[in-house]
Amino acid sequence: MLNGPHKTSTDRRISVFLAVDNVVKRHGVEGIFHSPKLAGYARLTIGCLADLPARTAADFVLVALRELGEQTLPVLDEYRRRGTKVLILLDAFDSFDADNGTRLAGVVADGFLGEAELTADRLGIALACISNGDLPMPATLARDVLDRLDRCTCQAPAAVDGLTPREHQVMSLMVDGLSNKQIARRLGISEHGAKRLVGKILVRLDCPSRTAAVALAMRSGYPDARPAAS
User: Is the full-model pTM beyond 0.85?
Assistant: First the structure.
């Protein structure tokens, strides 16, 4: 069982770009990274989201959902294309039923973490999970995802049927629980190529995460109802 980040003498420190504009929130997260449990595990750089394109590649970008918009989402997409993982910070009002729900549905991220549960242990576990190909998500968000899927069940088959044959292959492997790295190995493509295909699937299905996409696909009858791959 994963209890947090474990660093050996041969491991390099991960690089994290903290792109949180709110000063109070930024200082709080910065303090967590300076704790003994994370100081030797992560190398932190701080700045505004608009600074990202001019900076060198980072392993992770940590950003608050409420600071995302039309101008900043393309920046995150560009960094994800470069292989950077995106961890989104959620506050108590971020849900599908609130104003930010629409914004959340348009975000392609590698993990979500509630600010209320933000501790050195939980942050370290979230970073480690994402590194291993998993998608951390607060239970409240998972419930919101399921509630949203309940409301759009009638549209699920049509949405999934709109996938290309290649995307159906990837969707099938996602339903089987494979990570991006495992999908890449199974299909004989690069990990970047697998990430790109997963991202396209999330956009086509209008899902905020692979967890939501898998739930939607299973509601549509996967794997029994999927078209045969050509």
Answer: no
